[in-house]
Amino acid sequence: MSIRIFGVVIFVIATLYTWNAGSYAITFGDVLGPTVFPVIVGIPMMILSASLVVFPSGQVDWPAPQRMWRQAAALAVLIGYTIVLRPLGFPLATFALIALLGIILGGAAWKAVLLGAIMAPALWALFDQVLGLPLDFLGSLFG
After folding, report:
1. Within 10 Å of residue 136's Cβ, how many Cβ atoms?
2. 83 and 133 belong to one structural domain
């Protein structure tokens, strides 16, 4: 039964994802526009998740509670990242994301913080300076 529930949940997410992609509008760039990629991902996701509902197979072995808590904590960090990205800016929010995920996944705290301190500015430089995708260095919290 849990495979069918999972299939329904993924189907709903894929449907909302694909439907929301239709609202993207941009006046420059690719001829096809920003809607194409989400549709290319969303439609097969709907089909595959529907197949889980119609043709479930096997038995689900749920992970141990400790692993479930880690997954829930990682999901909470990812949701928190989307909330603090604009106020803190890309480097600070990404630093926190990388450091917290490293700790949650069982890494040493000092290694996770060091990785976040190196990767956050490097990713900002890659996206902003090299690829030309503008990202706020300091968010709205810092003016």
Report:
1. 18
2. yes
